Amino acid sequence: MTATTTAAERIDHLDLLESHAIFIIREVAAECERPVLLFSGGKDSAVLLHLAVKAFAPSKLPFPIMHVDTGHNFDEVIAFRDSVIESLGERLIVAKVQDSIDAGRVVDPGPDGMRNRLQTVTLLDAITENRFDAAFGGARRDEDKARAKERVLSFRNSFGEWDPRRQRPELWQLYQGKVSGGEHLRCFPLSDWTELDIWQYIEREGIELPSIYYAHTRDVIQRDGMLLSLSDWVKPRPGEVSKNETVRFRTVGDATCTGAVLSGADTIDQIIVETASSRISERGATRADDRFSETAMEDRKREGYF
Question: Which one of 184, 190, 238, 263 is separated from 6 by 20 to 30 angstroms, measured CA to CA?
Answer without folding.
Answer: 190
